[in-house]
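Worked example

This section walks through a single chain of length 237. The input is the sequence exactly as stored; nothing has been trimmed or padded.
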Amino acid sequence: MPNWTFTNINTSLKVLFTSYLVVVGIGYMMAFTQILFTHGMADGEVGLSVDDIVYSYYGNRNGSLIENKLNGSMKENASDEDRFKIIKWVREGADETQFKATIKPIFENNCLMCHNADSGLPDFSTYESVKHVSETDSGASFASLTRVSHIHLFGIAFIFMFVGLIFSFATSVPTWLKASAIAMPYISQVLDIASWWLTKFDPAFAWLVMFGGAGMAVAFAFMWVVSIYEMWLRKAS
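Given that input, the structure is written out below as tokens.
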């Protein structure tokens, strides 16, 4: 195999690599924004914090899941009056007759476009499903953790394989740093996902989630910047 570097590949390959890096870079920003709008609102305040991580995976066990969501990430999806009615109904025992008469119409007007039988989210069209999320908030379920874990392990590993492959053409960083940067996202990914499961059992592990995510972000940014710099800005020696 030839000793390929950014200085001896042709322009077509540079354009291909750059296009890929730009698209996954935008995707990374979108993923971070999505986290801010979901996990980042778990405590009802803007910005990602340790409390958000705890509430997302361990749960806020002072109340029900639906109440915590209505006071957190789902707060903007219903009026204060409707939110009050739902929370009051939950605290009074989540009666089925009252659900059909008062609560179900609120869900139909505000929630069923996302929370339906085909969405993979709790189906708010049925009393049984709503009753389940009206119980004490114990965080992410084992089923959802399993589903999200395998999606992330496959998907993110695939993304970083190509980012790392492109970055391996770099020559401006020492070999030890290059190898460390390529390995870091995989180590951080395993740490990140393992910490979801650990936090499910003990909220003290919530810090590890943030460390794992930060490790991936730093490695991605470093490889991205170095690759773009060497392809287009660095002068050939």
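What to look for: The radius of gyration is 23 Å.
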